[in-house]
Amino acid sequence: MSSFKVGDKVTVRVPSDRPLYHHGSHGTVVTIGTKRVHVRMDRAAFEGHDGEVANFLPGDLDLGHVGTPRNSDRMNDAFTSLKLAAGTDLVAVAMDDGIITAEQGEQIKALWASHLQS
Questions:
Q1: pTM over 0.70
Q2: Owning domain of residue 27
Q3: Taxonomically, which superkingdom (predicted)?
């Protein structure tokens, strides 16, 4: 318990005895009990839990805000990675078959990545 203090920024790991919907949430320590740390969800995994105060065992928390907390953001990141991989694979096939040059392939990959970000 001594590793946490009020005001610390924390990230919820997979909680051992709390609902799984807290996993990945970012929060701030608001009070410290005898066995549990009470955390206000600053950016919960699901927006509906922002501002909620939940209590966790110390082992369920990491110091600092780590990773992307929102499940919707994680899904978007996964789909973007999938789309980027598909474009990269397509360019590799075209280069292997001599349809485009390595320079053209790099230009296409850069344009594809730029398109996915916008």
A1: no
A2: 9-63
A3: Bacteria
